[in-house]
Amino acid sequence: MSKNWKWLLLLAGIFSVFAGFQMLANPAISLASMTFLFALVFAVQGISEIVNYLKAEEKHGWNLFGGIVTLILALALFSGSFIEMVTFVPFIISFWALTNGITKTIVGFKVRKTDKSVGTPLVWLGILGIIAGLIMMAHPLMTGFLISYTIAFVFIYQGVVAVVQFFKMK
């Protein structure tokens, strides 16, 4: 990397660390601003699950159900106000984890009848999703902070890595 361009790495690192600390200082605002990204991810996943259901040779109705629920949750996130986003996002994510866990567990049991190597891990991951969803539903405030803080720490980590890379470059 040329010397002129390596300064962009330092700049990106500084901005990333700054953004991470801003997210730590304002978790509610961070959560609200991330809502659009959550909605986008949910929309893509919901559409993907529905398309996969329609194209699958062996159709499991629970896959279609999961896709529809995920798409509805995406639409709910797209249509919320700032206050609704901050309070609604933790609930939506916990509800999504719960329904996703339930559908994956049911599908896993069906798949286990034909392929245990795929079905068994799917059942266990589904059970973990159910447990995570229930814990998050019981503690929505903790869920909101956890989401914001996790993303903030990732920003800080990535920023520090970029700054270290800048100083290691010749």
Alpha-beta content class: mainly alpha
Q: How would the global form be characterised?
A: globular
Instruction: Give the averaged pLDDT, no decimals.
Output: 89
Unreliable spans: none
Oligomer: single chain
Number of strands: 0
Number of separate helices: 6
Percent strand? under 5%
Distance between the termini: 9 Å
Helix content: over 70%
Q: How many whole angstroms does the radius of gyration measure?
A: 20 Å
Helix-strand pattern: HHHHHH
Question: How is the biggest beta sheet arranged?
Answer: none
Keywords: Membrane, Transmembrane, Transmembrane helix
Transmembrane segments: 29-50, 62-82, 88-109, 121-139, 145-167
Pfam families: DUF308
Protein name: Acid-resistance membrane protein
Question: Which helices and strands appear, and what pairs or packs with what?
Answer:
Blueprint: H1 3-25, H2 27-55, H3 61-78, H4 82-112, H5 116-138, H6 140-168
Helix pairs in contact: 1-2, 1-6, 2-3, 2-4, 2-6, 3-4, 4-5, 4-6
Explained architecture:
This protein is mainly alpha-helical. It has one domain (35-155). 90% of the residues lie in helices and 0% in strands. It has six helices and no strands. It has helices at 3-25, 27-55, 61-78, 82-112, 116-138, 140-168. Helix 2 (27-55) crosses helix 6. The radius of gyration is 20 Å and the shape is globular. The termini are close together.
